[in-house]
Amino acid sequence: MHEYSIVMSLMEQCERLAQQHQAQHIEQVELKIGILSGVEPALLAQAFETFKLDTVCHHAKLVMNIQPLVLQCSSCDTQSQVQERTIICPICHSKHTQVIDGEDMMLMQLILET
Fold this sequence. Notes:
Distance between the termini: 34 Å
Mean pLDDT: 94
Order of helices and strands: HEHEEEEE
Largest sheet: 3 strands, mixed
């Protein structure tokens, strides 16, 4: 389960940022998770709850914002959002699309207690 290694890296990043900003602990961790990121939100949440206990995140709330796919279609020249894991244009059903957003996972915000 690669969510464990993702959360371990996230905790290291949170520890560094808390130390940089002289924070006592972190109250909230906000992530953006693209639906094509390969990350399973339920497993990530479970891993976060497990690994946060011995870190500055021990009382932190995890907020996950699921990013839909944003596709740019070369055939009909439209940009659209889709909630499924597909690269087919919902307008013209072409496969000639480019993924603009929805493939990555990003740390968006930390709320720190100083």
